[in-house]
């Protein structure tokens, strides 16, 4: 089976050191669409207001705050203009021990198997705030150095971070996560993956409801409640994002891009594009290519 397109396929870091750090310091709105990945992510909201969706739950976050994204979490982030944030994304397997010991048994393996999960948020008022902030800054400070000694330091800081969370009982026991929530996440992944794989084709409500074994009426309410958008709104959002990528990365005619993204009516495509990007496709191409 083809890898789900909803699943992020970017390699974070390198094969020899699977950790990367990212930063957003532009004055425009920060937007990360719904996706998921196997890696663990630690996000630092430095300034501003952020709207976060994690496994179909909405959170409004006022910086400063830290957010953990556990392996497999479906998530998206939207900020107001002028916000500042950064993140580290890493493969937990880099912390696994070849020699099996108590740490591997009680902490590392449960994290790898998702039987234990990182806390969703750490706020400034929390007891561990200063420790987490100091360790995060230490990781960022060494992560871009390509020296083996720096990689060793980063790993040591990650172990210290895990020790801090463990010592303060901050980890979440997966047994406390409701089975119904896990079922919902699996269902949503099915639907979103299908849309990402087939956005260029006609996607019917009947097809989507059959995919998760629901009648169409219930599925409409179910999808809107979990995603915060109707099925049509979400499909259009994905199609417009794909069209925007094509406008930047190719010289194809706008009508050809519209058709390749599932729009047979060019007028409807332009209307939808303007609603989402606040400018026409031709204006978008011109502005982005001139930067």
From TrEMBL:
Q: Does the keyword Transcription apply?
A: yes
- Keyword Zinc in annotation: no
| Pfam families given in the database record | AraC_binding, HTH_18
Q: Which domain of life is it from?
A: Bacteria
| Keywords assigned by UniProt, alphabetized | DNA-binding, Transcription, Transcription regulation
Q: Where is the HTH araC/xylS-type domain?
A: 189-287
Q: What terms describe the molecular function in GO for this protein?
A: DNA-binding transcription factor activity; sequence-specific DNA binding
Q: What is this protein called?
A: AraC-type DNA-binding protein
